């Protein structure tokens, strides 16, 4: 199953989706879920929470996918099963990349998206050639263990 998710997330990146959007879309497809607003939900998480360099968008997109699959719809429902899976995912992610923060993972490629210069530089970069691709692949591969497959 991992090969299908790998292909989906790489295609999403190639098509121009952000890391957060790419992971969420691939995971939703894996679960057989579709909604035309899915990428929009994850847009603000790209670049480490609105381009601020905080939590990696790939990890944030994966957390959204876990919420779609295992989250609650009412306050009385269990929230800890979903949270436990997000904790495992985040810990594994940090172990693999040394951090869960976009700016730390990108290192020399880190860009300040609050400036015109930073946004122009970001648009000129090939996202799949940066560590973002590896983060997205790691996230969707981790999700294969944690998400239900479509029926």
List the main descriptive attributes of the protein structure presented here.
151 residues; mainly alpha; 8 helices; globular; Multihaem_cyt_sf; CGCAxxGCC_motif; C_GCAxxG_C_C family protein
Structural description of this entry:
With 151 residues, this protein is an all-alpha fold. It has one domain. It is 63% helix and 0% strand. The protein contains 8 helices and no strands. The longest helix has 18 residues. It is globular, with a radius of gyration of 15 Å. The two termini are 13 Å apart. The mean pLDDT is 90.
| Multimeric state | single chain
Mean pLDDT: 90
Our measurement of the CA-to-CA distance between the termini, rounded to an integer number of angstroms, reads 13 Å
Residue runs with pLDDT of under 50 for 5 or more positions:
none
Pfam families: C_GCAxxG_C_C (PF09719)
Organism: Solidesulfovibrio carbinoliphilus subsp. oakridgensis
Protein name: C_GCAxxG_C_C family protein
């Amino acid at each position: 199953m991992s090969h299908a998710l790998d292909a989906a997330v790489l295609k999403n990146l190639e098509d121009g989706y952000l890391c957060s959007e790419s992971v969420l879309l691939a995971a939703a497809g894996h679960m057989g879920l579709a909604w035309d607003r899915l990428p929009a939900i994850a847009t603000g998480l790209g670049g480490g929470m609105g381009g601020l360099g905080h939590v990696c968008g790939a990890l944030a997109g994966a957390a959204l996918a876990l919420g779609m699959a295992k989250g609650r719809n009412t306050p009385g429902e269990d929230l800890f099963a979903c949270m436990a899976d997000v904790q495992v995912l985040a810990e594994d992610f940090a172990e693999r990349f040394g951090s869960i923060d976009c700016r730390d993972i990108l290192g020399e490629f880190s860009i300040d998206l609050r400036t015109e210069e930073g946004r122009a530089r970001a648009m000129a970069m090939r996202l799949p050639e940066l560590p973002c691709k590896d983060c997205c692949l790691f996230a969707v591969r981790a999700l294969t263990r944690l998400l239900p497959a479509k029926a």
